[in-house]
Amino acid sequence: MTRQTTKPPLALNATDIPARSRSGYPAPFAARVAGRMKRKLGDAFGLKNIGVNLTRLEPGAESALLHRHTVADEFIYILTGTPTLITDRGEIELAPGMCAGFPAGGVAHHLVNRTEAPVEYLEISDRLPGDAGEYPEDDLMAVQDEAGRWRFLHKDGTPY
Length: 160
Known about the structure:
Layout: E1 19-20, H1 27-30, E2 36-40, H2 41-44, E3 50-57, E4 68-69, E5 74-80, E6 84-87, E7 90-93, E8 99-102, E9 109-112, E10 119-126, E11 132-134, E12 141-144, E13 150-153
Antiparallel strand pairs: 1-2, 2-3, 3-10, 4-11, 5-8, 5-10, 6-7, 6-9, 11-12, 12-13
C-alpha cells in the first residue's frame, strides 16, 4: 500500500489562506485577543521549524497577552497601521516598515491596536521543542506537551 501525500504549493496569495480568529487562551483571557485574525502562512507550505503568520488586529484588539517565550525567538514586521508595542521596558508606536525582535527569555511584549484602523503584520518565530510562555502581568503560564500543543495553567500549576 502506498501512502499518498499532497505536495505543498510553490506559491500562494497570502489572503487565500483561511484566517483563524480562535484563541487558545482560557476564557478569562480570550476576550482580550478578540479581533485578532491569523493566516498561518508557514503551515500552508509545510514548514515545521519556523512559524510565519500574517496577523490582523482590528481596532482595540491585542496580539497576545504580555508574554515572553523561554525557547522561541520572535520577530514582527509591520505592514499596515500603527500598533503600540507594549513591553516590560516601555511602549513605542510602530508604523509600516518597522520591525522588532524578541529573543527567547528576553523582553515581555505584545501589540495593541489603539487606533480606529486595522493593523496587519508578519510574525515569525522558531518552533523549537520545549518552549513555554511566561505572562508577567497575568495568572497564566503556557507549556507545551510532547506533541507541541499548548496547555494553559495558573502560575501555581493548576489547569484552567
